[in-house]
Design a protein that fits this description.
This protein is an alpha+beta fold and 253 residues long. It has one domain: Metallo-beta-lactamase, Chain A, CATH 3.60.15.10. Helix content is 21%, strand content 28%. It has 7 helices and 19 strands. The strands form 5 sheets. It has a 6-stranded mixed sheet. It has a 6-stranded mixed sheet with strand order 14-15-16-17-18-19. Strand 10 and strand 11 form a beta hairpin. The chain is globular.
């Protein structure tokens, strides 16, 4: 499998849950809001023997050239129309902003799915919860295109997609958060979304106040890390600035 991180850059995010762009080489860490987190926003493109997958969809930032995620795909030679599956761990705004885009002209405010030939895989209860919870964690306008759409598969619980993508509800970060295991051509990729967002968190007993169930997050990270070491998983970290991909098979520790 080919794994391509689609970095949207580093951001500082505090209690307001607003994501402020942060230039690691220039900006001063000490000038951020007290208690802020410094995170990467990093969807992943995975090319398997069967699919061109996108895991999570970024912030959905628009530039003069269009969606940032479109530009990131273009840089690696992939057209948005080539994406066959979009796998969504959950629908917090920093993961789901790119699932849809405004229709041409934008004056109507209506949106369409960003990847026209892809099937979207979303936990049905997460979509319902997103509309119940709303701002600031969820931007419901971005998510309206997921409702009543025949390209959207609303999942229920754990299961298997096309015989090689296993999805499993982890909860913990938010009630209906899910993780993905992708097995193809002898490699096993694990994407833990925001339950396993950074390499450092996998190696320490860390409990975050921003998680729905921080203790469960910590316990799951420990379980996945130990299993990943035994089974030589490749880990993908959505919020890790330095290490988006970690392969136990290559590192050996």
């Amino acid at each position: 499998m080919q794994i391509i991180p689609l970095s949207e850059g580093a951001f500082s995010v505090g209690k307001t849950k607003i994501f402020y762009p942060f230039n690691v080489g220039i900006d001063n860490l000490l000038q951020r809001e007290p208690g802020s987190l410094l995170v990467e926003i990093q969807p992943f493109l995975i090319i398997t023997s069967r699919d061109t997958l996108l895991i999570d969809a970024g912030l959905g930032y628009q530039t003069e050239e269009g969606l940032q995620i479109y530009q990131n795909l273009s840089r690696v030679g992939v057209d948005p129309a080539e994406i066959t599956k979009v796998l969504m761990s959950h629908l917090h705004k920093d993961h789901s902003g790119g699932v849809s885009r405004l229709l041409a002209g934008g004056s109507s405010g209506r949106r369409q799915l960003s990847f026209p030939n892809a099937s979207y895989y979303v936990q049905g209860m997460e979509l319902r919860y997103a509309f119940e919870k709303g701002f600031p964690s969820y931007i419901t306008q971005d998510l309206e295109a997921l409702e009543h759409n025949d390209r959207v598969v609303l999942l229920q619980g754990d299961g298997l997609i096309d015989g090689y993508i296993h999805y499993e509800i982890s909860g913990a970060h938010c009630p209906y958060h899910q993780v993905f295991f992708i097995e193809d051509e002898g490699e096993k990729i694990f994407f833990g979304g925001d339950v396993a967002p950074q390499l450092q968190q996998m190696r320490t007993r860390f409990i975050a106040k921003y998680d729905f169930d921080g203790k469960k997050c910590m316990e799951l990270r420990k379980q996945w890390w130990e299993r990943g070491e035994r089974e030589a998983w490749t880990f993908l970290f959505y919020h890790d600035i330095k290490t988006p991909v970690w392969r136990f098979a290559e590192k050996g520790s």
